[in-house]
Fold:
Amino acid sequence: MILLSTLVGWFMARRALSGVIQLTKTAEAVAAGALKERVPVKGRQDEIDRLAMTFNVMLERINDLIQGMKEINDNIAHDLRSPIARMRGLAEAVLTDDEPSPEALRLLCGDIIEQCDRLLGMINTVLDISEAEAGIVKIAIENLNIVEIVNDAVELFLPMAEDKDIKLKVQMPDKMWLTTDRRKLQRILGNLLDNAIKFTPRGGVITITVGGDEKGVSIRVEDTGIGISENDIPRIFEKFYRADKSRSEPGSGLGLSLAFAFASSLGGSISVVSSPGKGSTFTVILPKSLT
Ligand code: ADP
Structure:
């Protein structure tokens, strides 16, 4: 009996330990840089199997994060290169001119300031998104009439819309109060309107509708523009993502990521429905009160 129970005990301990040994080996391989390594799952449905599966899910997640960071780095490098190369080219042209005119120097300075503003804008937006995603963004709550905020935004974007013969329509009640952060709400709306005008051909219509109930407020921005393909929809809220069709328009691919991060930090959400060639509708939902 003693011999038999020793043997059974030894066998059981080895069986249990073999999973732990595999896990340790994989952890060591991952620590040494082999991020593609995974722990084999034996299919015994025991604790070790569950641990192995959790470990593998964690490795997948880390891999995705690293991949995402790599993509962002590549995009930042790419987006920084063009304005810097442009500034360098212009400065070189003026420098190789023996006697550059004051006019040429003024133009050079103007161009450099413009490119620097673009770069600073991009860097600040990336920082704003990171802060909002990390939950460390400052939120200044006040009681606001959303109707006023929408009217101000429409007034601001009217010249841009008129330049393209685009009609801006609003459908909203006289007043709708909510407690939220004014600046963030303005930036969400600004990005949606900017996109709607950019991606709507001449003669189109953009309709902004405000509605809500005692719990929340919805702001809908509907355009008759180029629309977004089914493949692009899941990716447009990613940092730096721009659909191929829209690359002829200026932009950095950060506006919707910022809008998404800000809407989440205000306890809300943002979603889209779109038909390529017909138009897109972005809907922001915010809680009536943040407290
Ligand atoms: P940007 O406008 O700077 O390119 P965004 O993050 O604001 O970046 O938008 C990401 C992408 O989503 C755009 O490049 C475009 O492809 C798509 N998109 C956003 N809004 C619209 C819209 N209203 N109509 C069509 N495509 C849009």
